[in-house]
Amino acid sequence: MDPQVLRKDFPIFEAHPELVFLDSAASSQKPRAVLEALTRFYATRYANVHRGGYALSEAATEAYEDARKTLARFLGARDPREVVFVRNATEGVNLLAHALGGRVDPGDTILVTEMEHHANLVPWQQLAAHTGAQLKAVPVTEEGRLDLEAFDRLLAEGPKIVAFSHMSNVLGTVNPVAELAKKARAAGAVVVVDGAQAAPHLPLNVAELGADFYVTSGHKMLGPTGASALWGRLELWQELPPFLTGGGMIEEVTLEESRFAEPPARFEAGTPPFAEAVALAEAARYLENAGREAVFAHDQALVRRALAKLKEVPGLKLLGPEGPDRGGVVSFYFPGLHAHDLATFLAERGIAVRSGHHCAQPLHRKLGAPATTRASFYLYNTEDDVDRLAEALIEARRFFDAWIA
């Protein structure tokens, strides 16, 4: 996989040839194939799905369901019916928190971790508040990994739901999902994995990971905004109530009651993001052609280079573990200097990074850093991007010397 070749597929780099884009963990850039798939669908195949008996609607419906099959293959699902299209990962977790709410009673435990993105924390907080359950969190070690001994102790309490991220959006930590899921299911829990950061980068086979649900974020994996794939075991989908109700998700409606459709339609109320789903399928094919093993190896090579070079920047603090369980994310800070000031300094030099708490305030509090600056790598980034970041940080160290503690 040659990032210099792949960059030619991304119009953004033609429009901004000097751009060093290191914010893919927030939202990735889009290859031409995805942009063209979206435009082509709107221009030549657009009609609402699952509703019309005319040729255009039937073609749109076929394209939408073909997209579901593509995402099922991409995720390693056993059956396309296990894939539900949602707008984003946040909606996916909220759907699950609502649908699983009937399984949670007062005094039950919902288990999360200290490294969770707010999208995989706040919905469970709300569920706990509404049901009288307890929300508990697995601690994060100083190295930036989950405390697995604490995880085992907390599992002994018999949590009803265990939710954790596949890869941290702050630390880059890749959690041992198969091991965690096996233990959690053995303890009787429903297992929800936030794969927003992992699905764009790692080879996936959800059927073998052992989780019950796996959430993705389409716009982070080269796809458009507004469409993401939420995978769940079919037998669980068949047991769960819908999140949203209305058109498209019913079997029969009378004035007195409604009977809901079988999954996945039960969880896709209203007009779904069908054009965006078609473009998301194109993104999945692009990643399959690039080779996700190669993508992740490239990410890891860049993060190793970044860690080595950033350690040479005087006073810069780096977060996250070192080793094979680290994805392409590096968060850092200068004590005494606000992350936004550093990000602005980098932006003035054509380097796009993220700054703030990255929707992970509990984790930042645990690490003693109110905010950090984050660089995240993807298949279109190069070694030169890493080098420019390191050079700019050395320059920033000199420029902000009086502010840095």
What strand line-up does the widest sheet have?
2-8-7-6-5-3-4
Strand proportion, as a percent range, falls in 5-15%
Uncertain runs are none
Element order, helices and strands? HHEHHEHEHEHEHEHEEHEEHHEEHEEHEH
CATH superfamily of the largest domain: Type I PLP-dependent aspartate aminotransferase-like (Major domain)
CATH class of the largest domain: Alpha Beta
Structural class comes to: alpha/beta
**Radius of gyration in whole Å, from Cα?**
22 Å
What's the helix and strand layout?
Elements: H1 3-6, H2 11-15, E1 20-21, H3 32-44, H4 55-75, E2 83-86, H5 89-99, E3 109-113, H6 122-131, E4 134-138, H7 148-155, E5 161-165, H8 177-186, E6 190-194, H9 206-209, E7 213-215, E8 228-232, H10 234-237, E9 250-253, E10 258-260, H11 274-290, H12 292-310, E11 317-318, E12 329-333, H13 339-347, E13 351-352, E14 354-356, H14 361-367, E15 372-376, H15 383-399
Parallel strand pairs: 1-13, 3-4, 3-5, 5-6, 6-7
Antiparallel strand pairs: 2-8, 7-8, 9-10, 11-12, 12-15, 14-15
Helix pairs in contact: 3-11, 4-11, 5-6, 12-15
Structure in a nutshell:
With 405 residues, this protein is an alpha/beta fold.
Give an overview of the whole structure.
With 405 residues, the chain is α/β, with parallel strands linked by helices. The chain is built from 15 helices and 15 strands. The strands form four sheets. Strands 2-8-7-6-5-3-4 form a seven-stranded mixed sheet, sandwiched between helices. The chain is globular, with a radius of gyration of 22 Å. 49% of the residues are buried. The mean pLDDT is 97.
